[in-house]
Every structure is written in C-alpha cells, then in structure tokens.
Amino acid sequence: MAAIAGPGTPGGRLRAQSPHLSKMERVVVSMQDPDQGVRMRSQRLLITVIPHAVTGSDIVEWLAQKFCISEEEALHLGDLLAQHGYIYPLQEPYSLALRPDETPYRFQTPYFWTSTLWPAAELDYAIYLTKKNIRKQGALVEHEKEHYDQLHKKINHTWDLVVMQAREQLRAAKQRRKGDRLVTACQEQTYWLVNRPPIQSSDFYKREIELSRKALGRTRVKSSICLEAYLKFSSQHSLHDPIMSGCLPSNPWITDDDTYWAMNAPMVAVPTKLRVERWAFSFRELLDDPVGRAYFMDFLQKEFSAENLSFWEACEELRFGGQAQIPDLVDAVYQQFLAPGAARWVNIDSRTMERTLEGLCRPHRYVLDDAQLHIYMLMKKDSYPRFLKSDMYKGLLADAVIPLETKRRVFPFMRKPRHSSPSPALLPTSGEPPATGSTAGGDREG
Amino acid sequence: MAREESKALLDAFNKTTACYHHLVLTVGGSADSQNLREELQKTRQRALELAVTTGARLTVALRDKGLTTEERAEFERLWVAFSGCLDLLEADMQRALALGAAFPLHAPRRPLVRTGVAGSCSGVAARALSARSLRHEAERDFDRADLQELEQEVLQVGKMINEMEMKVNVPRWTVQARQTAGAELLSSASAGASSAVSVPERTGPCDLSKALAATVFSAVLLAAVALALCVAKLS
C-alpha cells in the first residue's frame, strides 16, 4: 500500500488547513444525487441483500463525465477518494485503491469522514481493537496486536472504560439488522485502516515525534513584541491612510476628480509631502517607492557608494525574473560586482563572499541571497540614516507639495457637494461641516 | 453501598453513551430521518440526566474526607472511567451537531450519503432508554429546533466537565485499571455468557456432523455386507 500523504502524516494539521478534504466531500455528495449521481447496485451476500454498492468502473465513468477529464485522471481522482477513506472496497478491505472494473465499493458514512473525526483518538482506537478482539475471540492481525499492547501500556488508566464501552457498543450493535451491522463494521474498519495503516506501525510514532520536534523549533515572536510593532505601525501610518485621515485633494471615488491619483503616481516629478515623510519610517518604504529609490540613488552617487544599490537591484531582478535568464544574469552580476577587480566591486565580508562564489558554480534564483542581505543591512545601517539627515532630504521635504483641498461650492441647489471627503472613521465631534459632509457622503456611499 | 450505587449509575451512563455513539454513526447516511433525530435527542437527554446524577454522586463521595485509601482508590477508578465516558459523549455530541447541520433533512435539500444502511435504529434507542419500544412523535421541522438545543447542551456539558475538574482533583496516571489486557475475552456477565454459548455451538455441529457421517457410513457398510450375504445365500 502506498504511503498516503493525507491522514497518516499530518500529525495535528487542523481541519481548516485541509481544503482538499472539503473538495473531496463535495465530490462525494454530488455523487449521491438521485438523478445525476452514480449508478447504484445491490450487493448480494448469502441471505442478506445490502443496497448502495457501486462498481469501480461506474465511478471512473461518472468522474470523467462530470468533470470532463480523461479516464486516467478520473482513475487517479477516484483512487484518492479511496485512499482517504471516502469509498471502500467490499471484497478486499485491506487494499484501499480504486480498480476500474466490476469490483464493488460503498460510500463511507459522514461520521467516519476524515474531516469529522479528526484527529483519530487513542481511546477510540483502543475501543475498536477491543471490540475486534471480542468478535474474533482473540485472533487479531499482527499489527493490530502490536497496537493493542502498546495502547494497553499507554492508556492503562482508562482501560476499564475501554472494556466497558467495547462491550456496550457491541450490544448496542446487536439491536440492528444483520445487514446494517455488517455495513457499520466495514465502515469502522475502513476508518481505522486509513488512520492507522498496517505498514507504518513503529514509524508512526517516530514521525509524530519528528513533527512535534520541528514544530517546537519554529521561531516564534512573543505577542508583546508583535503587538508593540503593530501599535507603532498603526500610529505612524494613521495620518497617511486615506480612509483613517481623509485624502487631499479629494476622494476620487466620491468627487470624480482623479487629481489624487495623478499626484501620487509611481513616477511623479514632485512627490507629495506625506509621501516624502513616509520615506523616513523605514528603509523598506524608501526602497519600495520608485521616486524615493531614485533620490536615494542620487544621494549614494554623491557618496560614491551607488554600486551597493545597483547590486541590490540586480539581485532583485534575479530573484523575480524569468528562469531562462538566470545563468546569464548571474554571470553579468559576477563580472560587474563580485569579481576581484570588478568595475563596481561591492564590499562583502569574506565568509559570505566565499559561500556566494561556491554557489555560483550551480546558479539558481536564490544564490545571491546572502550577499544581497549583507548589502541591504549595510545600506540600512549606514547610508540610510545619513540620507535622512542629509540636506538633500531636507530639501525634498521643503519642496514637497501639499495638495489643496478642493474648494467647496456653497450653492444651495448643487446636489453634489465637491469637497475633500472626511474620513468615515472620524467621530462627529469636530463641529457642523464634517457632520453634514459625512451624512451627505454617507448617503451616497451607503 | 455508595460504591454499588455509583457503579450501577456508571454502567447505565456507559450504556447510554454507547447507544448514542451508535446512533450518531447513522447521521448523514441513508438511514437518516426525522425519527433518527428524535431518537438522538431522547438518548442524549437521558445520557445528560445520568451524567449529572453520576457526577454529583461521585463528587460527593470523593470530597468525603473520611474515606479509607482502598475506598478512595475505588472511587477514583470510577471517576476516571466516568470522566472518560463524559468526554466521549461530548465529542459525539459535537459531531452530531456538525453532521446535523451539514445534512439538514428539510430545505435546503442536500442528498444524504447512500451508505447501504437501511434499517431503523429504534432498537438501539430503546435499549438506551431501557424501554421496550419507542414512540415517534416529532413535528416536521424538528431537526432545526433540535440543533439549537443540541448546541446549548454541548456548551452545558463543557461547563459541567470544567466544574467537575475544579471540584475534584484526581490525577489520571495514579489510577490502576482493574481490567488487564485481554480481559474482555474472559467470560463476565452476559457478554461472556453469549460467547460461552456460541463456543460450544461452533464445536457442537462439527461433532454432530462427524457422528452423523460415521453412523451413515457404518449403516451403508452393514447393508452392503447383508446384501452380499443374501446374494451368497441365494446363489
């Protein structure tokens, strides 16, 4: 049986992170449609007749027709359904695979779907094995016997409950018809075959330990630090946010005047004051803004360290560029920036340089990551503070334009008052005009 | 005295939980119906009643300072079994809520999964309620109102579990279970009796058929010998 990259391995993956399960369930439910679903037959045992059996070939045919896919793909899809336990074979219960012939299958009850009963609990498994033990008079399969002994050691304190529940569940099952009893037993068996597959008996717990260890090793940030950073961001950016603090000259969506967008275009000759102020918040803000980056480049040229920024830009191009251009680009970068005696040699420490040069033998998208990070931190710690203190930046701040608020027209019979729309988040405590403005604006927005 | 009473309550609670588990298995399948939802509700209410009574009884017993160590160990054992059973019930109730909401019986109509189960579960519910048979008297939109009730009851059970944990402190790992591995195979009460009955039944027919075969064979042999003698006498 192939290793299943599904129920067996997650080790604590939440239901919300398994969208493939809900997709499979939707497929199974659409198969149940009385008119357009899969064709159902009956299974004939010696005396009992159990309805709702489907053949493998019917399933493959239905899938191919419903999703307009090839037969091979339909077979693969059906196989996935079987491996995750949504359908189970009636003749050979231990092989959870779909065969496109006359082998009969049946659908699993929603209680035993992987998304309902997740994760598979030790107590439930113990109860199941005990029930099987009673039914088979002690003749359990090899791996089940191992599991039984392991569980007996592990949850020894609740063993009374296990035995009591197992006995009572068997007695409750006796109250049903023979056919129903058989079906219920098959359903439970399938569920446990999917969630405790026979092969990985000793490896299962080893893998669980492995996954838990990896989870422990993941870096986590304390919520106190996260929240501080979040508060700082919010307080810094609240004046810059068009919704929180209104936007000048006016909100284009309300007044149909797109001056705001024109003034804040990516490449504009004179940036607005707010924009220039944002460059002082963090280095990232400066680099992300094309106008800011251009001015920073000018500043670096004056300081004779422009090759740092050029190198950084070249690395970005490598990371986000096309796959086919990678070898040439890496070569060009090496020739221009990294080779000893290159025209624009960048100052990287020896260890990073060694590692990068080794990696250049087999170039890939992220081979220059270490060097790029080094140069980024260099610029951030060294050039960026100097830029903010420089005369150039101060000049930019002084020259930056604050757009004028669109003049308000006071004609009483103008239906559309054109004014800078105040923020809907502002409380109406600041006097009359914002209140009337917001109610009028609110009518049109709401 | 208190011990027997608690044990009896626990057994009843265990039985009801097992029956409820069996009923929840059928939700969403082809045997799902208004009747099933009604049976679920009745079983659930009985289980909750029993849970409250058993919990109160065991709490009182365990908070009694004047217990001997032996008695205390016994009550702790019952307590661990009871809280495990209550956890199982809570989990099954949550699943019943999720499945009941996912497979509503009235509009919006969603086809039930055809699982091959066709019979009704009233026998199981009757066993849970210790009644001979069950009368179904639900109105049409029963399942929707029932789901809201179920939601409330799930929260109630959660609260009950928390309260119990606060009042009584029983470390799970110190409890020694009485049953050993494979204890379920030994005969005890009716489970043992039925299995004991079935065992001779299985070996009986073998002996019987062998004996029958032996008699028939010997009879045929005797007849053949007699015929041969007659033929010899005649000739």
Automatic annotation (TrEMBL), chain A:
It comes from the Eukaryota. Keywords: Signal transduction inhibitor. Residues 413-446 are annotated as: Disordered. Residues 34-109 form the DEP domain. Residues 282-397 form the RGS domain. The keyword Disulfide bond does not apply. This is Regulator of G-protein signaling 11 isoform X2. The gene is Rgs11.
From TrEMBL, chain B:
Residues 133-167 form a coiled coil. Keywords: Coiled coil, Membrane, Signal transduction inhibitor, Transmembrane, Transmembrane helix. The chain crosses the membrane at residues 211-232. One of its GO terms (biological process) is negative regulation of signal transduction. The keyword Membrane applies. It comes from the Eukaryota. One of its GO terms (cellular component) is rod photoreceptor outer segment. PANTHER family: R-SEVEN BINDING PROTEIN (R7BP) HOMOLOG. Belongs to the RGS7BP/RGS9BP family. This is Regulator of G-protein signaling 9-binding protein. It comes from Octodon degus. The lineage of its organism: Eukaryota, Metazoa, Chordata, Craniata, Vertebrata. The gene is Rgs9bp.
